UniProtKB/TrEMBL annotation:
Pfam family, one: AlaDh_PNT_N
Molecular function via GO: alanine dehydrogenase activity
Organism: Pseudoalteromonas rhizosphaerae
Protein name: Alanine dehydrogenase
InterPro entries attached to this UniProt entry: Ala_DH, Ala_DH/PNT_CS2, AlaDH/PNT_N, AlaDH/PNT_NAD(H)-bd, NAD(P)-bd_dom_sf
Gene: ald
């Protein structure tokens, strides 16, 4: 198969779809890989590193899109990239469609085969291609929150861990999955008071087993959520209903009633955010203030640590990329029900229920869609 890796173009996004070691694996399997010039420069990989791994370098994204049968990216395709997709081309990347009508419409129009990293599942009910970036973003959320609490950033002027004789900050994490657990780990490490809310009791049990009495693992009712959010110095939003727009659990009234100078980091912003006052921001301008609460809502947080993130992402995506290339998308998807969950749009049809529901569009069963493609 001919595989293309364009340079990422989202604001301050330096991750890349494939590192040279991944290219070498694909080439060893008999595939051809075309990489856009300087695609890996942001993490220290030169064009020569890629050619030594067996790739060919193309000068522009337009040439990569025109040449490749399968495009491997990191972030959802931006409008100019979507315009370059064509019928039957495979796109394998993060998509986050449910909160993004323009992208969904463009992918439908393209008639491409669009497989989202974030909805691929595993046999234990996990999200193996989202998990590594959630670990990064969860850990980063505490760094971002700590900065937001600094006075010069309009925060309350609090150190997360306090000092001897002074209380630590209260960190409230909504959602105890990959993001939530990683955030809790960092917040505990810094000495904050940590509460995690989730509505899955097994998740609460796992938190209890991991952190003991260093984390209060609380069942997430509207009542519990309101109590802890109003007491919080820092709120981390990490809920997910896979593939769906995030539920707005923290309301504008909650934000009004929070302490002046408190902060929120809405990691779930890539699915639209779980805080009513959130709107997506960029690494160039990551925060804004609503009712004296500092909001950090960067939708590509792992892009700030692209070296760590690219390796972590590639470790997870490589076996799936190899499968797609070796077997073709039909066999790769039909052989693996968990991989098939990644298919969101194919040849103009929406094959992910929550996306179809979000936009009142017809839903087509993915297996049927692939079999008929
Ligand atoms: N902004 C960014 O750069 C990044 C954002 N993310 C996003 O972070 C979000 C969380 O991802 P993961 O932790 O991997 O998901 P996950 O599936 O591991 O965890 C989500 C948790 O939310 C819980 N939950 C669902 N509804 C809830 C409710 N009403 N109250 C409390 N808990 C509830 C679930 O039980 C689950 O434990 C996703 O939207 C993901 O796309 C992930 C990586 C980077
Ligand atoms: C998951 C996601 O949105 C990211 O890694 O940027
Ligand atoms: Mg207030």
């Amino acid at each position: 198969m001919i595989i293309g890796v364009p340079k990422e173009i989202k604001n301050h996004e330096y991750r890349v779809g494939m590192v040279p070691a991944s290219v070498r694996e694909l080439v060893n399997h008999g595939h051809q890989v075309f990489v856009e010039s300087d695609a890996g420069m942001g993490i220290g990989f030169t064009n020569e590193d890629y050619t030594l791994a067996g790739a060919e370098i193309l000068a522009t994204a337009a040439e990569v899109f025109a040449t490749a049968e399968m495009i491997i990216k990191v972030k959802e395709p931006q409008a100019v990239e979507r315009a370059m997709l064509r019928e039957d081309q495979i796109l394998f990347t993060y998509l986050h469609l449910a909160p993004d009508l323009p992208q969904t419409e463009d992918l439908i129009k393209s008639k491409a085969i669009c497989i989202a990293y974030e909805t691929v599942t595993d046999s234990r009910g996990g999200l193996p291609l989202l998990a590594p970036m959630s670990e990064v973003a969860g850990r980063m959320s505490i760094q971002a929150g700590a900065q937001a609490l600094e006075k010069s950033n309009h925060g309350r002027g609090m150190l997360l861990g306090g000092v001897p004789g002074v209380e630590p900050a209260k960190v409230v994490v909504i959602g105890g999955g990959m993001v939530g657990r990683s955030a809790a780990q960092m917040a505990v490490g810094l000495g904050a008071e940590v509460v995690v809310l989730d509505r899955n009791i097994d998740v609460l049990r796992a938190l209890d087993a991991q952190f003991g009495n260093k984390v209060k693992a609380i069942y997430s009712t509207a009542d519990a959520l309101e109590k802890h959010v109003l007491e919080a110095d820092l709120v981390i939003g990490g809920v997910l209903i896979p593939g769906a727009a995030a539920p707005k659990l923290v309301t504008a009234e909650h934000i009004k009633a929070m302490k002046p100078g408190s902060a929120i980091v809405d990691v779930a912003i890539d699915q639209g955010g779980c805080i009513a006052t959130s709107k997506a921001t960029t690494h160039a301008d990551p925060t804004f203030i609503v009712d004296d609460v500092v909001h950090y809502c960067v939708a590509n947080m792992p892009g700030a640590v692209p070296r760590t993130s690219t390796f972590a992402l590639n470790n997870a995506t490589l076996p799936f990329i190899i499968n797609l290339a070796n077997k073709g998308y039909k066999k790769a998807l039909l052989d693996d029900a968990n991989f098939l969950k990644g298919l969101n749009v194919i040849k103009g049809q929406v094959t992910y229920k929550e996306v179809a529901e979000a936009f009142n569009m017809p839903y087509v069963d993915p297996r049927t869609a692939v079999e008929n493609a």
